[in-house]
Every structure is written in C-alpha cells, then in structure tokens.
Amino acid sequence: MKLTVLPEEFRRALPVMEEIEKEGFEAYFVGGSVRDVLLGQPIHDVDIATSAFPAEIKAIFSRTVDIGIEHGTVLVLFGDDQYEITTFRTESTYQDFRRPDQVSFVRSLAEDLKRRDFTINAFAVQDDGEVIDLFGGLKDLEQHVLRAVGNPHERFHEDALRMMRGLRFVSQLGFSFDDETFAAILENHSLLEKISVERIFIEFTKLLLGGHRNEAIRQFVATKCYRYCPGMENAKDGLTAFAQLVPTPFTKEEAAWSVLLDHLEIPTEKVTTFLKAWKVSNDFLRECRELVWGLRQRKMGYYTPMALYRLGERALTVETLLTYYGRPGEAGRTALALAQLPIRSLRQLAVNGNDLKQQFNQKAGPWLKDTLRYLEQGVVESRFVNDGPILLAEAEKFLKQDAE
C-alpha cells in the first residue's frame, strides 16, 4: 500500500529524513502517527525510526538533545520543528515487566518493528509514502482488530502496561481484541501489579475519555485488569454499572473520574484516600472530591444555598454530569443562582477576623472561626444582610448565646 498524499506533518519532516538518507542510512515514519494517518485521524506526534545509531544522528544534525539516548532516542531540532528520532533496536529480558534490562541497536527495520505492541502500531512509512506492513496490521485496521505483534504473552511480559494500552485503544478506536490477545491479557493481568500507579493512571484516564468508553470498561472487567488497580479489587459491580452509562464521551478528566467514583460508591469522606492511592495531584484530588460531593447533593434535589456556595463554578460542571445519568442539567438556572448569591467567598463578607477581635477585644481562638462561619452561612442563606454593623450585631448575639 502507498499513501498517495502525505499529511502536512509528514511533509514538513521529509527534509530531516533526506538528511539521514543522504548519509546512507534508512529512515521511516513509525508509531501512532502512521496508524492515525491510515485511519484518517489527526496526527499528534511525528516519530522517526532509523538505522543510524545515536552518535551518527548527532553527527548529521547540528542541534540535538539527548532525551533518551540510552534507548536510542535523540531529539533533533530542525528549523522551527523538533522530531524524536530513534535507532532501530532490540530488547533483552524485562525483569520489571516494564523496562528492558538491555537495549541493543540494530540496522534492521524488521527487528525493530517486531518488538512493537500491536500490529496497528507496527507500521513504517517510507518518504515516498510506501507503507511497510510486516504483521498484517492493515488487515487488522480494516477489521477493527487489536492483535499483539507475535506472541502476546511475550509482549505483555516485556511490558505489562501494554495490556492497559490495549484497553485504551478499545476505548479510543472502538476496536476489539482478537481471541489470542484477549486470552493473554486475561492470563497475565496480575502483571499490572509490577507497573507504577502513575503509568496505569495515564492509560486508564485516556480510556475514560475515549469515545467507546463503555465497551473498554467491559473489557477492563472481563480481563480482570481492574483487580490490580488501586482500590478496585472488589469494584466489579460498580464498574459494570459505570459501563451502562449514557455513552457520551467525557471531555474532562476530573469529570470522568468523579462519575466513576460515584458509581464505585466510594464514600465521600474516603474519596481523598482512594485517589491518593492513585498518586494524583492535590489539585486533581480536590476537584474530584468536590465534584463527587456536589453530584451526590444534586442527585437528591436542587442545591441548597450553602451547597451552591461551596461548589461555586463547579456547580455548572455538576449540571453537565447529570446527563450521564439520563437527567437534564439546569445550567441556566444554576448560573443565575450563582450570580444571585450574596457572596461567593468568605473574603467578600463585610467583616473579617480582625474586625471581630477588635470589636470584642478578644484574641484569636476557636470562637473566631465559629463566628465567621455563622455569619458566612447567615449571609449566604439571606438571613443577614452583608453589612458591617449588622454583622457585628449578629456576632454579638451569637457569642452571647454561645456563652449561655
């Protein structure tokens, strides 16, 4: 097969390949970009594989960066563009089921391609558009099949994360595993225990955002990969319920995870512990925790003023999440309700801690936090007007009542 028209991203990279070939070496477009071109999808990264060794690439180009030279990858800066150029290589055994114990550089394209994960990722394209397909990837693309290159057991023992990558491709591409590859994942799913949580999180999150998410989750359960993901050992029922959602794709990671957490029935007070096991950022954790709380509040009825105040703009996100439960959100009503809140944060309260300390001639202590919280709630619920003298008077009543 030959590409009659190379995409713009490939055409821009042709001068780089020409420089390599001028020195007597081979160079090909490889990886996901080739697959995406064949599927008619947008290209994200252009990767080039070559028979030239790293030192030889650095001798050809004046501007390079050693971004992974121990694995044969050199970043070439060419004009305003940059390209990762990787030497053909073979790999030894994988003691940790993720990284090879030893990488050997070779001059053979065939040797390089046979270590790829799936046939649809094992293409190479020459500068004239000729597609090199050594493992039946074109047929698998046509039939929407995910098939491991060679022996699937070997591929997953080399890199156990490939099982999660396969599930991610099910979600993103709508493909199905061939029987042998599925059986190998089912047999080897426990190898995920050897993979870092951070890497699993990346692949699983991409799965959650895919257009065929529900089928991918069903395969995630069927292959038993879920058992080796943090906090999901007994999550079969929750995942099965999640896989029955309205199939609209999620557009934000936090939204996807929040709906998942709700279906897994993780108690709101345990969301933090659950997500910490996934080693997510504090910002991501905080956003998910608030969205889960807000979603559960909203499912019981419309927001109370204090719930709306706590959520702020997140309430608008919660409204979009209702659609996954087959319920229409009320974004317009919620936007108006947010705009009508007397205050949007404690900083907007007409009195602060210093005002209270000065008014009542007291040092800071638990009373101060309690009083501010009381005034804040009173203003949000429109029981008090957000006016300094009025709030000081209400604070005095509250403190007297508290002292009795």
From the structure above, extract its key features.
Methane Monooxygenase Hydroxylase, Chain G, domain 1, 4 domains, Beta Polymerase, domain 2, 11 strands, 404 residues, 10% strand, 7-stranded mixed beta sheet, elongated, alpha+beta, single chain, Hydrophobic Seed Protein
Describe the structure in your own words.
- By secondary structure, the protein is of the alpha+beta class.
- The protein has 4 domains: 1-137, Beta Polymerase, domain 2 (2-Layer Sandwich); 144-244, Hydrophobic Seed Protein (Orthogonal Bundle); 248-341, Methane Monooxygenase Hydroxylase, Chain G, domain 1 (Up-down Bundle); 349-403, Serum Albumin, Chain A, Domain 1, CATH 1.10.246.
- It is 50% helix and 10% strand.
- The chain is built from 20 helices and 11 strands.
- The strands form 3 sheets. A 7-stranded mixed sheet has the order 3-4-5-2-1-8-9.
- α7 (161-173) packs parallel to α9 and α12 packs across α14 (282-300).
- The longest helix is centred in the C-terminal third of the chain and has 19 residues, at 282-300.
